[in-house]
């Protein structure tokens, strides 16, 4: 077989979920809710199928859903995305990221990724024939703009931003976005902005979308996912918003990779998005879970890192173990009975840290059981 991605193993999410299942561990590794979505949303899918939404959607997505996405983005971020030209419905954020990267980079180009970097960026860039250039964040998981500047070469074509940030839970600030705007203008870069956690931002902080910044909006592919926002990660429906010239390039590839996305869920999401309450309430919903989980973890020897957004809580375990992160995550799963994700897998080069990530998008009893196991693990 032709050797595509010869050095790429199985994604950590598959590895840790399988290990958790094998050992009966509470799975706080892979990020997905273990509770049901809103019954009204489920009913809307059933209704859509009953009403005949069962054939191919238009290649770019159902118009009602594109209109709902454009209206929400424009209302929230002051942008002016056109529902017909600038919004494309995708098979989740993952396909949005892959296709956006392929639309704007090619052989020999370099793409800056901020590490720890979500694990699909690196292979997506390599598949496009381009070179991922990892730039580690600062020790407290802020974007290190001096290091980003230093990593830019004449071959740098794009940068991948992710805010709120998986796995650190950090949220980019207005200054971060302005810095990126200057840099992108100066070096004529495309920006792939992974904003799948846009509605999970805590303590009154603002989500700084690229759509809020005119100089970024015009050169960015904004990637979103309904899976995160509506507790339906298995539906794999998302969107990409980009100015029409960028969207046209995106759609040239999209039409021959997926053509179009599952129709009844698109129709249901369009109906459901008309009510802002579910996504407006999401930050409050998860902030309460974050607080309860942090309070429970405070009873363990693990040190909590800040969590400003996303449904991930990162901890430092150096007080209890000197194992490398992957070994510790395996030990935690098989011996303590709680699965976690090691941060080391999100870097190109080995790191000296002792950090793992827990997902708190779980029922209260699930989180309580995980905390109970963690509290007794080092007794
Ligand atoms: N980007 C980030 C940062 C994510 O955490 C995820 C989901 N884990 C995705 C993209 C992919 O989203 P989807 O599940 O909609 O493909
Ligand atoms: N995005 C999820 C996470 O970070 C996992 C998605 C996947 O399993 N590919 O945990």
From TrEMBL:
- Pfam families named in the record: Aminotran_1_2 (PF00155)
> Domain of life, per the record?
Bacteria
Q: Span of the secretion signal?
A: none
Give one GO term, molecular function aspect: transaminase activity
Q: What are the UniProt keywords, alphabetically?
A: Aminotransferase, Pyridoxal phosphate, Transferase
- Which cofactors does this gene product need? pyridoxal 5'-phosphate
Q: Which residues form the Aminotransferase class I/classII large domain?
A: 26-374
Q: Which CDD domains does the annotation name?
A: AAT_like
NCBIfam families registered for this protein in UniProt: PRK09082.1
The protein, known as? Methionine aminotransferase
Q: Source organism lineage?
A: Bacteria, Pseudomonadati, Pseudomonadota, Betaproteobacteria, Burkholderiales
């Amino acid at each position: 077989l032709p050797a595509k991605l010869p050095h790429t193993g199985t994604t950590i999410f598959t590895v840790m979920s399988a290990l958790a299942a094998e050992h009966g561990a509470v799975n706080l590794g892979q990020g997905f809710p273990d509770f049901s979505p809103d019954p009204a949303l489920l009913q809307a899918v059933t209704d859509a199928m009953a009403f005949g939404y069962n054939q191919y959607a238009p290649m770019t997505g159902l118009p009602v859903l594109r209109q709902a996405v454009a209206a929400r983005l424009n209302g929230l971020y002051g942008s002016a995305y056109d529902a017909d030209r600038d919004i494309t419905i995708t098979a989740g954020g993952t396909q949005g990221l892959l296709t956006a990267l392929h639309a704007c980079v090619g052989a020999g180009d370099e793409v800056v990724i901020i590490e720890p970097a979500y694990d699909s960026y690196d292979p997506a860039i390599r598949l496009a024939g381009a070179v991922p250039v990892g730039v580690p964040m600062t020790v407290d998981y802020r974007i290190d703009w001096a290091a980003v500047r230093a990593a830019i070469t004449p071959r740098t074509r794009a940068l991948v931003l992710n805010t709120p940030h998986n796995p650190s839970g950090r949220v980019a600030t207005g200054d971060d976005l302005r810095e990126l705007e200057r840099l992108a203008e100066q070096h004529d870069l495309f920006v792939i902005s992974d904003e799948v956690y846009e509605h999970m931002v805590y303590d009154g902080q603002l989500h700084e979308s690229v759509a809020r910044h005119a100089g970024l909006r015009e050169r960015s592919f904004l990637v979103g996912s309904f899976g995160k926002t509506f507790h339906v990660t298995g539906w794999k429906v998302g969107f990409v918003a980009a100015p029409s010239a960028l969207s046209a390039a995106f759609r040239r590839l999209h039409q021959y990779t997926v053509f179009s996305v599952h129709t009844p869920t698109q129709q249901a999401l369009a109906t459901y998005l008309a009510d802002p309450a579910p996504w407006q309430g999401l930050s409050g919903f998860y902030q309460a879970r974050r607080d309860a989980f942090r309070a429970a973890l405070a009873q363990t020897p693990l040190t909590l890192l800040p969590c400003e957004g996303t449904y991930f809580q990162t901890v430092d375990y150096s007080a209890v173990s000197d194992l490398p992160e992957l070994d510790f995550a395996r030990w935690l799963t098989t011996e303590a009975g709680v699965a976690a994700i090691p941060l080391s897998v999100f870097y190109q080069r080995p790191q000296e840290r002792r950090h793992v990530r827990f997902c708190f998008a779980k029922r209260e009893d699930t989180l309580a059981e995980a905390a109970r196991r963690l509290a007794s693990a080092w007794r």
